[in-house]
Amino acid sequence: MNIKYLLGVSVVAVCIGYGAGHAAVIETGTNVFNPLPGGDGFIGIGHDPMAPAVGSLTINGGSTVLGTVVHIGSTVNSTGTLMLNDGTLATGAADTYNEVKIGNNGTGALSASNGGQILMTGQPFFAVGRRVGSSGDAVFDASSLSLTVDSGADFSAGVQVGRDGGGSLTLNNGSSLSIIDSVGTPGSQATYGEVLMVGRDGGPGSLTVDASTIQVSGTGASFHIARGGAQGTVDVRNGSSVKLTSTSNHADDVAVVHVGQSGSGNTGVLTVENSTLTLDGQAGGAFILIGSDNTNGEVTFSGTGTAVTLSTMANSAVQVGRDSGNGLLTIENGASVALDGDNSNLDVGRDSANGIATITGAGTTVTLSSTAFSTVVVGRDSGNGILTVEDGATLNINGDVGRLDVGRVGATGTVHVTSGGKINAMGSSDGDVFIGAAFADFGRPAAGIGTVVVEGAGSELNALDGVYVGSSEVGGGGPGTGTLTVRDGATINATNVYAGTGGVLNGDGTINANLIVDGGTVAPGNSPGTLTVNGDFDLLMGTLLIEIAGTGAGEFDVLNVSGDATLAGGTIEFQFLNGFSPLALDGFDFLNVGGTLDLTGTQFEVSGLGSGFQYDLSQNGGVFSLVALNDGSTQASEPAAAGLLGVGLLALWTRSRFRVRR
């Protein structure tokens, strides 16, 4: 054993392994090493500033070692090991900075088992892999690590894994990590202050939480993964729990998980599997931020035992890709995510960033609730966002006002709802969907490019009030480009669906709403197919596009309207596809109306045939048809009688038979 004691008035030091290959074992007793009052008690395990050192310390059987600064693998090329077998390492005193570093400049290892514990008080700091070129590994098995900041101290507790050097921290088998910040001054910690950090400043860090717990509580509670060009990986699994609580009533003190925070090209990864993640933001807010400031962030919530909860009296948000970063979020296999607060938000791809969010699997749910606004924005402020809800998963946008915005403020947004997935914008007083549509009540500038595809039996897009495609009826700073596709048995349920300037609605599904076209385009079918509207249809201005590729069922578009149809002021365009040319007297029943029909002022156009094509329109009850008078290659003579024409449609024939465009 080579133990070097350095004693002084204000400094007490013990170096285990001051040179090569030395070990110390402490079997019984307490206060084995106790720093002088007000002193800086240093314990170095594997510490020699002059040469490589190897040292180990084992604390067994309820023994306690007291110190202030503990370095394991302290100096360059040194190796240190600390083993706590039902033993305790205690550091700190009132208003005193203290630290434990595993791999400070050399290589350090910590193993705590059978109830072993590290207790840190005062102004504590715990690090694994702290310096460039160092590496550290800490494993807690049925053991604990506790950091508590004294009340009134001007300091926030910190645990850092992989800062500059490489670090790994593992909590197994009922182990616990608690960081309790009892600082009394609101706002004393910055909004995104460092409390728990994995991967910083180029040093890779990893944290594994297996059937164990982490609790972070104080005036602001933050968890950062991958910052400053570092790689950070966190795996929470097997019934573990991670809880961050901001106990302050100050607006600057938040509960936040930040995955991929800053740097260039670094990646943060967080996986929560059959475990819980809870953020309680009190007055400051609760946030999960994924991929920002030119970094990459990847988060997965998986399994029926996974529950992620964000609650606050202020704002709660999950942001996937922001500030030129890249974010990836996957919620799968029955996991649940719940956001609650004054306002709650899910942003996917904002502020020139790229974001991808996937909600998948039967029983998988994401629910936004609020006392005011709950908003899901896919593509915002020049960002690029993609959201997929599939395989029986559900996205609920509740609250007083619930809104889905796709492609907002110069951004590009895409939403896929497939294979029985559901999106519900069902605020208690208002629920809307905006697809490439700016809305004036918030003074939004011109919208972006929005695309929503709802496909497959059981897939639904539901809104309490309206679905707005392109420039909406409520105005805005300028129209965007919006496309809404409902196909293959999918359904849209709303009060009204609007297709404004720049908006296209197509597909062969079902719309349980009134359909209003004011400058946009409705294209029934799936090139071609049948679109069903259970409600009224108003073509105020814009186009009803009917594609025709043959005479058989399913070879031309059909629009079924259960209510009234008013087509005054719009255009019906018949577009012939794939070189198909009808024969004389071929008929195409393109519009079925359950109520009344008003065609006053309707224009008709034909494309895809020769300029000689002539046609008529026919009505048989609620069925309206296009009837070919020739194949378009020759001029047809004037009909001898108007038997094909429905009552009131004769005037249309003399005008429309020559409106053919190439």
Features of this protein?
disordered C terminus, 1% helix, 61-stranded mixed beta sheet, mainly beta, 662 residues, elongated, 61 strands
Account of the 3D structure:
Among the domains are: 320-452 and 468-485 and 493-505, no CATH class; 508-662, no CATH class. The model is unreliable at 1-12, 184-193 and 635-662 (pLDDT under 50). The chain contains one helix and 61 strands. The protein is mainly β and 662 residues long.
Short recap of the structure:
The chain has 1 helix and 61 strands.
Sheet with most strands = 61 strands, mixed
The termini sit apart by 96 Å
Estimated radius of gyration: 34 Å
Percent helix = under 10%
Instruction: Describe the oligomeric state of these chains in a short phrase.
Output: single chain
Total DSSP helices: 1
User: What portion of the residues fall into strands of 2 or more residues?
Assistant: over 45%
How many beta-strand elements? 61
Structural shape: elongated
What is the mean predicted local confidence, pLDDT? 86
Low-pLDDT residue spans: 1-12, 184-193, 635-662
Structural class: mainly beta
